[in-house]
Batch of 2 targets.
Target 1
Amino acid sequence: MWEKYNAKWFMCDEAIKYIVNLFKKEKYTTVLEYGTNVGYLASKLSESFKVTSIERDERFFEEAKKNCPNTTLYQGKIEAIAPKLNEFDVVILDAEKSLYIKHFELALNHNPKMIVADNVVSHKKKLNTFLEHIEPYNPKIITVGDGLAIIHLEHSQNHSLNK
Ligand SMILES: C[S@@+](CC[C@H](N)C(=O)[O-])C[C@H]1O[C@@H](n2cnc3c(N)ncnc32)[C@H](O)[C@@H]1O
């Protein structure tokens, strides 16, 4: 079912496996994904969690609707939709890399226990200022798939300072 799509957009399977195990271990139940594409990650996560996801591209959004019937999907820009959404245990950043800092700041408003950012190894150069920006939050860089930054806000002093 996924062969017809461009898999280079999808989070890698080993990274998905890693975050599913991590979220289960932490007993998280609600996940917000920034950047649905056609719903590959959302459909996998929806097998175990209550997932909400945002995609700006209308064609991708229509595909995602077919591919993930159990995910709550929104079509539009993250910057416009995210401020209208409530709290989530986890927010996953996987949309436009140049907007990662903006998306990280928006994600904090969902009062998440964790923020996960994809592609921090594969797009290291592009995400350099983002990686500097999150440094005070003590991110863990995990080299599975394209590289994940895991920001565990429950353990981060900076988070409580920002509240
Ligand atoms: C890497 S793909 C997401 C892949 C998906 N998370 C997965 O693993 O299956 C990034 C998607 O984010 C969308 N996107 C990028 N910037 C966005 C924005 N500002 N608001 C909403 N969607 C955005 C793009 O259209 C693209 O489909």
Target 2
Amino acid sequence: MSDFNELLGLRDDVYRRPLETALQRLGVGPGWRCADVGAGRGDVAIELGSIVGRDGRIYAVDVDPAARDAVAEAAAQYAQVIALTQSVEDLTLPEPVDLAYCRFLLLHVHDPLVALRSMVASVRPGGWVVVQEPVTSAGRIDGEALSMPSARHPDIGALLPRLVRECGLDLIDAWSESPAGAGPGPVRKYMEELSEVDPGDAAVLLPPLVTVLAQRPLP
Ligand SMILES: C[S@@+](CC[C@H](N)C(=O)[O-])C[C@H]1O[C@@H](n2cnc3c(N)ncnc32)[C@H](O)[C@@H]1O
């Protein structure tokens, strides 16, 4: 898992800003119960764990058992972070959560709508669903469009506002952010990891990450 881990670490660096904006908008704080679905090694889950404190609870869910082991090791000092091996399609949490979150997950699943509905069902009425997914083909290297043939839905980010409404959620806000750069720095390093090609001094526009804030209506 070493390449995988390094890539996620870089992702936390270059795509950190929209995550912070989303968490601030919601007012995530002590005592919140959250699920980070498709958590990978748990960078976001651990961040959430530090925000919600000992009275909160974070379920870091991933279909890959190796991810659960990585989270368990990385979150050793956070008793409130609990790593679970489950697929998003079969998500079954011990309690309803205030926030179900995913990032870079829906582009890989078989059916994004099924996955999203499963996340919605895990949230209490009045709770939040936050989704962050890319529009891969809108990324550029020196003006040339990127492609990501390994992803089932590489441009799923562009559909998120409609998908959350189809799941019965109230769409509260949605926006996209694209880190950009040229020459040495985190953007070039991230692109090199993603494409396995060093972009050198080319202008790099990373895939826009669409963030959607949606709320489950009260009955
Ligand atoms: C690209 S990583 C993203 C990790 C993390 N969300 C982040 O942004 O750093 C995608 C993760 O989704 C997990 N995954 C893929 N399909 C899944 C599914 N059907 N249910 C749960 N997790 C899944 C993978 O095992 C992987 O850890």
